[in-house]
Write a structure and sequence with these properties.
Blueprint (H helix, E strand, L loop, with lengths): L28 E2 L9 H16 L3 E8 L6 H21 L7 E7 L10 H7 L1 E8 L1
Parallel strand pairs: 2-3
Antiparallel strand pairs: 1-4, 2-4
Amino acid sequence: MRPAPAPAPAPARPAPPKEYRADDALKPIYFAFDAAVVRPGDAKILDASAQWLNANPGFLLLVEGHCDERGTNDYNLALGDRRAKAAMNYLVAQGIKSDRITIVSYGEERPACTEHNEACWAKNRRSQFLIKER
């Protein structure tokens, strides 16, 4: 009897649409290990982002959720989604219309750092923000 084949790797998530771009006014926020709670220091970053978005209503926002490499692919995709939603919900509470915001989770698939240590993993536990004109 033949052993069961190994499961196929999860398909890579598509890159953000090319019309989205980074802007220096919108800084990433970072999360604690295995958490999707916006920390006080990151709330200040989101407050500044909300001010910029309120002053620039002609832009749509893409919120990306990212994780470090620990955990399964499925778990990290779900955690990245919770992180993106936490950032989105914070911005909506600051007056940004939810129809201006799209979220996507990349889980561990798009690391900012590829070393295998806590300092690097902390850089990967993040939400990033991209914009495009309406």
